[in-house]
Amino acid sequence: MSQLSNIFAENQFCVLVEYLTSLKELFPVVTEFAGFPALMTLADRVHSDDDVAPLVAAQQFPAEVDKVLHYAGKGRDIAEFKQFLQQAQTAGQHNLLLLTGDKLKHHESGEHGARTRYLESVNAVMAAKQHGGFCIGVAFNPFKYTEAEIDAQYLKLHKKVKAGADFIITQLGYDIAALKQLQRFLKRHSYAQKLLACVMPLTLARANFMLKQQVAGIVITPRMVEVLEQEKSLGLTERVYERCALQILIYQHLGFAGVHLSACHKPEEQQLLQSYIERYRHLDLADCEQMWHDLWEDQSDEVFRPNVNTYSKKVSLGQIVKYQQLHLMHDAVFNSKLGLGLGHMIFNQGFWNKKPAAKALLKTELLSKHSVVGCDNCGQCRLADTLYICPETCPKGLANGPCGGTTLDRCEFGDRECIHSVKVRLAKAVEQTDVLKDQLIDAVPIEVRGSSSWRNWYLKDDH
Ligand code: SF4
Fold first, then answer.
1. pLDDT digits (tens, 9 = 90+) for 107-141
2. The Methylene-tetrahydrofolate reductase C-terminal-like domain covers which part of the protein (predicted)?
3. Whose CA is nearest to atom 2 of ligand 1?
4. 439 contacts 413 by C-beta, under 8 angstroms
5. Which residue ranges form the domains of the chain, and what is each CATH number?
């Protein structure tokens, strides 16, 4: 059992201190933070696509310090992940935070050659659970502000739990009401997963950096920046640590399992933060919350929320009719006894193994499906589990649900609406939300891509 599992089992509040593997200097790691047990976490490719892998970086730190290794699926395949699991186990690493990850900095859209693939967190959790021996963490972004993106996030969280997550770490955020909503969700569904909130001492420089870089899924409002600017001009820069301390204490009072502390790896920063935790430790929840709001100069939570023009969008009749037609067609051709028998008979012919026939089949499949649903010849058609909205039309190719990078339904890539928001709206209109909640969709192995999903479908039981 890892130290982290023990801490969870004993219901101790803990602090996971994040270190970037791109740091030039090796900072001392702590095993205790303001009286709380502390562990280190190693982030995966946050600074650049070529950062040292957390598994490699972990070797530079004392073996007795328990670590949580992040693994982001960007630019990775399920086979690579399974190899990583083996290596992590051999290296004695037992705690993982599995996430899809934000856009790879050198993302290739496929227009000029290969397309960057993303291993979904749900698939990584399924594989890690099957492998066994790991305490598995997943990321979750509760800071969403339209109906569809909130629903899409929570539906995916059901899948992460079902796949085998042991703990949840939230996206960095400041809207404590959104975290309370997440806590209520876990309680309502009797989910026993441990909940940790990501916190960071938010300086003006960091806020401006995140806004400039448009860091995916992080909400910093103009009012927050205004408050930070005022403070800086008045020389009240320590308020940043005061706030972070209060946030940590609020989460402790709320019964969270701990916090994931980002951008606080320097000893002097840690000392300052710890001193404020000590100073406010005696306060109860109501007093901590009152001080938190006072420091943001706002008694409501509106200061942390973006302006939302449209909370709910409507599904068009055309979308519903298209879904119904495709659903009927799919059932008749791919699920009926007649369809399955015919398909098996046709595609079982050795003829399809010949290159020209395989090529012609693939082209026919692409021509017939691309214009209707956006098919990209993935070889493992998942349309029936995604309400006929093709996962390949998501730039990351995600099938199980959204990444955390949406902004008011807009895709992290900025060029479309998130396909998962569209899908959730449709699912509600046709009463199919259970499909999005329960159906764990397998990852597409690289070697399957570029083959006929029709043929693979009918012959799947022959393998
Ligand atoms: S479509 Fe949605 S899930 Fe896909 S990359 Fe964009 S925001 Fe993420």
1. 999 887 789 999 999 999 999 999 999 999 999 99
2. 365-438
3. 418
4. no
5. 3-106+113-304 (3.20.20.220), 317-462 (no CATH)
